Amino acid sequence: MTETDSIAYDVVVLGAGPVGENVADRTRAAGLSTAVVESELVGGECSYWACMPSKALLRPVLAQADARRLAGLGLAVQGPLDADAVLARRTYFTNDWNDDGQVGWLDSTGADLYRGRGRLAGPRTVEVTGPDGSTRVLTARHAVAVCTGSRALLPDLPGLAGVRPWTSREATSSPSVPGRLVVVGGGVVAAEMATAWQALGSDVTLLVRGKGLLNRMEPFAGEMVAEALAEAGADVRTGTSVQSVTRENGSVVVVTDGGARIEADEILFATGRAPRTDDIGLDTVGLEPGSWLEVDDSLRVTGSEWMYAVGDVNHRALLTHQGKYQARIAGAAIAARACGVSLPESEPWGAHSATADHGAVPQVVFCDPEAAAVGLSLAEAEQAGHRVRAVDLDIAVAGSSLYRDDYRGRARMVVDLEREILLGVTFVGPGVGELIHAATIAVVGQVPISRLWHAVPAYPTISEVWLRLLESYRDN
Predict the structure, then answer these.
(1) How many whole angstroms separate alpha carbon 471 and alpha carbon 209?
(2) Can 3-43+99-151+275-356 and 160-271 be said to share one CATH topology?
(3) Which of 148, 174, 227, 424 is the most exposed place for a label (fewest CB within 10 A)?
(4) pLDDT at position 4, please?
């Protein structure tokens, strides 16, 4: 290898998804030279196989559901969705899986993009193998940021590869609607994709190993989503595991642990995620290949002075918005340390510390009804030793009745009784995704209930549920 094969940068970023892009943006803004390595599409999972295409599929579904339940609109929207138009709109939002626009944005930051597979080759060193087989070595003066994300985790079932199962990628990028679809899983991907494909014309069977859907939220969230899926025509089976799956004469044949036989055209496994760290050279720096990477609040890998793990790979919160938040923190921390600033070990509300991941993570599930939550559930708060009270309320305010004629929703806030602040909030109902940021501010800001009384919700909006929750806390 010649000397010109090695190129030095201040920062090398592995992965050009939203997380890697944001790390690069922040380090470049601080004046650090930055290289970004990407083996697939710039923009990553979120742009092409997750957030954007899935929500593009779901938006017409939710809009139609709302319209059908409004006097004056119901008869106008009784027909089926135009599946071809919905799929075309989905493809538009992925730019037909072309990343030219994202590459242009990355170029505008001044970061250098390297196409190819990047692997650590020792401390502060990344070896990049290009599409043509050529190799370059990048060295980092200050930091290597691992932003490689996560991948779908498939179960260990004999012969599964031959079945050609869907993961979240195939579920969001399919060019056509399967006539029959089996969805295995009970989390966000399973619930959202069952909702989308059922509405687009698939005959959906949802197999859930546990007691219900969305087990990381309050129990009523999963119950309401499962009930709505069943009302829409999906066959929802809880307490059910897949015993075997084969493909016979083009059809998928699933046998459950109870002996039931289900035939379908496709099967989607939404059964968890694994870190994309199995082939990035972790062994060259003393770490276990394929492992989640433990980090401190500045996102620096435990025991390292130069390596950062940002986004899904650290397993704190596998959500795009949380990964981008971490990227902003990591970029600021890398820049500060590059300037010789010694950061404190504990900086709860500082610019270099990712504290939101400890108990204020917001999430929205875009089903009908939507489910949105931030902070701790009641069970989590109790397990953490807090003295708490749950305030539960049906969402029945002027704004909700105007939003939809048959509006059904529920809200819960978990109150820390010693400090009289909110530890968590959950909403379920049409349109509640737009309520969750107010709840996030209340939880992150530790706003006392006495002050929340003076945050007056606009009338007539669904946000008026806040007033009813506070009244219920006061009066009971």
Answers:
(1) 39
(2) yes
(3) 227
(4) 43
Please check if 272 is assigned to a binding site.
yes
Percent pLDDT > 70 in the chain is 99
Indicate the domain borders of the chain.
3-43+99-151+275-356, 160-271, 369-475
Is 188 annotated as belonging to a binding site?
A: yes
3-state secondary structure of 342: coil
Candidates 3.50.50.60, 3.40.1360.10, 3.40.50.1010, 3.40.50.150; CATH matching 160-271:
3.50.50.60
Judge whether 364 is annotated as a binding position: no
Q: Is 149 marked as a binding-site residue?
A: yes
- Residue 77, marked binder: no
Q: Is 305 annotated as a binding residue?
A: no
Is 317 among the annotated ligand-binding positions?
Answer: no
pLDDT exceeds 70 at position 2? no
Query: What pLDDT is recorded for position 370?
Result: 98
Asked whether residue 162 is marked as a ligand-binding residue, the answer is: no
Q: Which residue has the tokens 């502060």?
A: 124
Predicted TM-score (pTM) of this structure? 0.94
Residue with token string 């999963």 = 222
Q: Which residue has the higher pLDDT, 112 or 349?
A: 112
For the segment 422-435, the average pLDDT, to the nearest whole number, is 98
Burial status of residue 455 (CB atoms within 10 A of its CB: 0-12, 13-18, 19 or more): middle
Q: Which CATH class is domain 369-475?
A: alpha beta
**pLDDT at residue 28, rounded to an integer:** 98
Residue 55 marked in a binding site: yes
* Mean pLDDT score, 47-56: 97
Residue 3's pLDDT band (cuts 50, 70, 90): very low
Residue 118 assigned ligand-binding role: yes
183-231 pLDDT tens trace: 999 999 999 999 999 999 999 999 999 999 999 999 999 999 999 999 9
Q: Partners of 139 in the beta sheet?
A: 8, 125
Distance separating alpha carbons of residues 242 and 163, to the nearest angstrom: 14
Residue 363's CB: how many other CB atoms inside 10 A? 19
- CATH classification of 3-43+99-151+275-356, choosing from 3.40.50.11750, 3.50.50.60, 3.30.499.10, 3.40.50.150? 3.50.50.60
Q: Look up tokens 């196409």; give the residue.
A: 115
Cβ atoms of 300 and 308 closer than 8 Å = yes
